[in-house]
Amino acid sequence: MSLAIFDLDNTLLSIDSDHAWGEFLLEQGAVDPVAYREANDRFLADYEAGTLDIHAFLEVALKPLAEHSPEQLAAWHQQFMASKIEPHILPRGEELVARHRARGDTLLIITATNRFITGPIAERLGVDNLIAVEPEIVDGRYTGKVSGTPSYREGKVERLEAWLADKELTLDDAWFYSDSHNDLALLELVEHPVAVDPDPTLREVAEQKGWKIISLRD
């Protein structure tokens, strides 16, 4: 039995769920239509370029969670799943997860997107283990702050190592599937790094290192 680790956005999904949530909030009139759209698009570009200031991003991204009730957020997330996520779940991604499940592997999604957004997505994909950015909750409401280390770039490695220690697991014979050069630190650690529809930087590195390159898109 091995550990099969999956990035989520643009790996098992054909979109970035963090950016899609921002677009959804704009459609609901829940955020400033000009400033939030500009920030949402800018942060996505920074992420793709590998220059994202994760704390500056989270200050903006987590603020709407603090501004609305848990009931409103839950209702919105149901709509979000149906309209924004379900159409972008990659069938070949689901097949890949199913193959690892059939082998008896331990399944884990690790993502730089926060747990509010990704928890229901992981559940929909049938993956019980999730490492995500943890929004702080006090007295049943989001505060708009982040709890602990964000699972981004080297933070993914830090969070994974803590998770492995807690579960008494190792990375022996582990797989990691990702599309992004932001995940190079973690890809370097596993025995089976797989570049999935990789961005240009990751593709170049994967080709140089002889890593497997696959596509989960039609």
From TrEMBL:
A Pfam family reported for this protein in Swiss-Prot or TrEMBL: HAD
Q: Which residues form a coiled coil?
A: none
Q: Which InterPro entries match?
A: HAD-like_SerB, HAD-like_sf, HAD_hydro_SerB1, HAD_sf
A GO MF term: hydrolase activity
Taxonomy, top ranks, is: Bacteria, Pseudomonadati, Pseudomonadota, Gammaproteobacteria, Oceanospirillales
> Keyword annotations for this protein?
Hydrolase, Magnesium, Metal-binding
**Cited NCBIfam families:** HAD-SF-IB, HAD-SF-IB-hyp1
Q: What is this protein called?
A: HAD-IB family hydrolase
